[in-house]
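HUMAN: Would you supply a protein with fold tokens?

ASSISTANT:
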Amino acid sequence: MKHIIAFAGSNSKTSINKQLATYAANLVDNVKAEVLDLNDFDVPLFSVDLETSMDGQPENAHKLLNKIKAADGIIISLAEHNGAYSAVFKNMFDWMSRIESKTFFGKPMLLMATSPGARGGQSVLTIAEDRFPRHNANIVGVFSLPKFKDNFSEGKINDKELNNQLIAELDKFKNAL
């Protein structure tokens, strides 16, 4: 059985991106879906000096990277803070890329974002679509959910058109596994 991981690029305990990633992962049939929480992979703020004094990278960066390496596919929903990655995601990404520059190991990836606003995290998606392939991401689908509070309730997308868009992107993801 294929194994996928899903996580949000957020450390909010009530992360709307984690809710979206969880929903998407649960729609993938015939796989073992594991939803991760970046709070379980706490790492210090990246700096070269700290890396040198630690004689390497933090164990939790290795643990998350190993989860990515062991998975058959990745679903990630990025939080957008001031038009870019959240600090917690960027920090983890920095640490992991010091361990393995090809951070995503060519795994099929469904890249998503949501936000309370009408653009649904489009700015962070644009950044990730440009950057992640340089780290061996195989982005096979992209989905943006605008106006989270209006379009998501009771653990699912309640707008039929938006839900159909997600299902179409998930089909691409499933076919790439």
User: Anything to note?
Assistant: The chain has one domain: 2-176.
